[in-house]
Amino acid sequence: MRFVWAVVAFVLAAGLIAAGIAQRTIFMGPSTQEAAVAVEEPAPYVLLDGDVLREHPGAQTLLVRGDGDIFAAYGRTADMEAWLAGSSYNHASVGADGDIDVAFVDAAESGDDGGDTAGETPAPEETPAVEETPAPEESAATEETPATEETPAAEATPATEEAPVEEAPAAETTTGRSPVGSDLWLDSFTDTDSLIADMQLPEGVSVIIARDGTADAPEDIAVSWPLDTSTPLAGPLLSAGAAMLLVGLVLYVLAIRHQRRGRGPRRKGPGPLPPTEPIDIAQLPPAERAVIEETPSAPAPDTSATDAPAPDGKPADASATPGSDTSGRDVRTSERRASAPARRRRLLAIPAIALTALIATGCSAESWPQFGEGTPSPSPTATIIAPENQKPPAVTEAQAKRILQEVSATLSDADAAMDIDLAATRLDGPALTARTTEYALRTALPDTTPPAAIPTDEVEVVLPEATDRWPRTVLLLSKSSGDDTIPPVILTMTQQDPWSNYRVDNMAEMSADAAFPKVAAAWLGTSLIPDDSAFLSIRPADLATMFADAVDEGEQSASYGQFDELSQNLAQSIRDSRQSVVQNLADNGAAETSQTSFDIVPADPAPVSMATLDSGAIVAVSLIDTESVTPTSADAVIRFGDNAQAKALTGVTESAKGVTTKYEFQLFFSVPAQGSSEQIRLLAVRQDLLSVEVIK
């Protein structure tokens, strides 16, 4: 009966293990579900609406196939529609029946939609060609009034140079914009012939697919989602099968043991033997009787002589015992043969147990039932309440860091090659004007130290403007983690329209003693403060003028006490530099034949003001400090002497009518709210030489 129960256990174990394996193999369904996007009419772009990507739960995988380079990016749906304004594209969305509908959008229709989305932002066909009149050359002609500020339309430079606007009609230009390298995308992907991108997009985010903006976009597009392939019964079935197999093996071993103890199955023995009678030897034939009489009777066995040598000289087999077949060797051989099947069965049982254990332990978490885990108690965090109808931030934190890295890399390349056109793709306003003079000096004076690269190791502050229109502004504070000699940098960068990249317009080095104010989180963003705002201690439009008065008048200025100690120290250093010029003329005996004048005024670019959490603002302003040296006699001339920069920028060594030198100051202030008793604090400052001109 024990053998029967062992067989039953083996059968149950085989069934349970087979059922568990089948759960993970033949009975397991597909791991993904896929939906194809049927594009009927070719177009340079395909816009996948966010609803298409979120049609099923879980992460999305975008599959695009086609010959050549393939580009895909995702970003805010409104931003993508604004970028596609004036272009023909296919728009994939989810229809009322749940299927994916693809509609062709004509360039004229997208231009109308883009105008509504972007507000006052002009469509790309209205953008004039900026390549014919580069901004750096105009700013070099007149530093105080950069051309980029007089022609704001020029800011809408297309993101790429492959399709110049001036060489193509407006209709062709709108279909030739390359999406590669645009700062508008939250992230992008490129590959050749086949592109696979894993993403998990939230609501309000869509995907654009293209090549270079001129060739038709790939048409073999599909989106896949993962399916739940968990088999919670596989693990328990395999474990139960392993346990049943172990029970069967135990029952089988017990049955064998019981059989051996009973000496095997018993058989029916022979009947009773007849009684033995003594043999009368006298009646036997003479020959047989002679043999019997000659045979000696066997002596009694002597146990002490078991080890004695045999008659032939060989030692007797010590293992021979009465009742053995022939010798002790035969007995041991028969015992080994009898025990061999038992050992073979045990050796077969060990791999079976090990294999079952391996199958059970190799199952992943998907093969076991997942019981509900306790919900962790939330930790207290600061509460930030977004205002009603809050606009989205211009960029995300990751997007801003990526843009800053691209800006820093581009400027490093431009500085190495002294390529002002390349620098103009990432600089604007006062920052571009200062770079123009810098390159001119380095061309004439190769030993001039190039400007330091923008550090990107640690971006401590990302403060984007919360808006859905253009232009858009972002303030950043970054520092170097490996070089303590590089000071932190505060900068603002602006994107003029959907087709332009961000360009730095204000940049300054932060003082080690300055404390940065508290600002909103990057995911919330902030608002720009109007220049005439009355909610600050002073209007942003008046800040540069007030600081200029503090420089000129010193402690006699009415606004001197409104600035903190760092600001006052900067004003004093400017006055000291002016005094050093006067003293230098006196030391060279030119005090009676020349005169100096100084004037510091706000630069033409408007201030950039971004609100902080304490109802104050960070305000970036630019000032132009002009230094003029003129002769007081018709016979006197102004010689430049050891001033190599003046010689390099003017091309002469002296002037009969005098010389004018202009410096630019880019300043960042923290301005408190109206009614606050705090002073205006200086955060960062940068001074650049703008120009040296001979008075004519």
Q: Give the strand content.
A: 15-25%
Largest sheet: 9 strands, antiparallel
What would the principal axes of the Cα set say about the shape?
elongated
Distance between the termini: 124 Å
What is the arithmetic mean of pLDDT? 80
Radius of gyration: 47 Å
Structural class: alpha+beta
Low-confidence stretches: 113-175, 300-327
Number of helices: 16
Give the total of beta strands.
19
The helical percent reads: 25-40%
Describe the structure.
Strand 11 and strand 12 form a beta hairpin. The protein is built from 16 helices and 19 strands. Helix 1 packs antiparallel against helix 8, helix 5 packs across helix 13 and helix 14 packs across helix 15. Helix content is 31%, strand content 22%. The protein is an alpha+beta fold and 696 residues long.
Q: Summarize this, please?
A:
The protein has 696 residues and is of the alpha+beta class. Helices cover 31% and strands 22% of the residues. The protein is elongated.
Layout of helices and strands:
Layout: H1 2-24, E1 32-38, E2 45-48, H2 50-53, E3 60-76, H3 77-83, E4 89-94, E5 100-105, H4 107-118, H5 135-141, H6 147-150, H7 170-174, E6 187-199, E7 205-210, E8 220-226, H8 234-261, H9 286-294, H10 328-361, H11 397-417, H12 420-423, H13 429-444, E9 458-464, E10 472-479, E11 489-495, E12 503-510, H14 540-553, H15 565-587, E13 594-602, E14 608-611, E15 617-631, E16 638-639, H16 644-650, E17 654-655, E18 659-671, E19 681-694
